[in-house]
Amino acid sequence: MPDALSIVVVEADRERAFLIVEGLRVAGEFDIEVISSPSGLARQIQMRDPDVVLIDIADPSRDALEELTLASGPKDRPVAIFADRSADGLSAAAVEAGVSAYVVDGLQPARLKPVLDAAIARFRLFQRMRTELAETKRALEERKVIDRAKGMVMKARGVGEDEAYALLRKAAMDQNKRVAEVAQALVTAAGLLA
Question: Which domain holds residue 166?
Fold first, then answer.
């Protein structure tokens, strides 16, 4: 993220928005924009494409929380929610929805910077975990395709597993492709011929 973080503050109350902006200005160098109307929030946030979204809500309901969370794009950027009150289970629901920080007991200017720092760190951690999970799933799927292709080569050529894999690997090197790509092509071709 750049040196001066861009922050979108979602706050309908003008006075509270002013306090939040002043608290952020004291806390550091930020590019701050305030969205006062929740209508079209997703579009407004997408247009601004901030580094962080900060939402201040007095008494969130589960529906309002879910709508705000989805609109603010928690998979794309850190989202911090400050609530004056919170019903049972709302903080867990917020975390499950991807919110990086959910702070109850209102927004206090002195707490802004540490909460934003924690939200950003937590977002980055979960982003790395999502990336690792996606890579692991992809590798597992590739492994399944390679095993299937090996089985097809073993049956067609009457060779063992090691030799079948060596043939796939040689074909991949000859075509300047990955073994998984060659295996997928073989499985796809076999499916068309069956």
Answer: 133-193
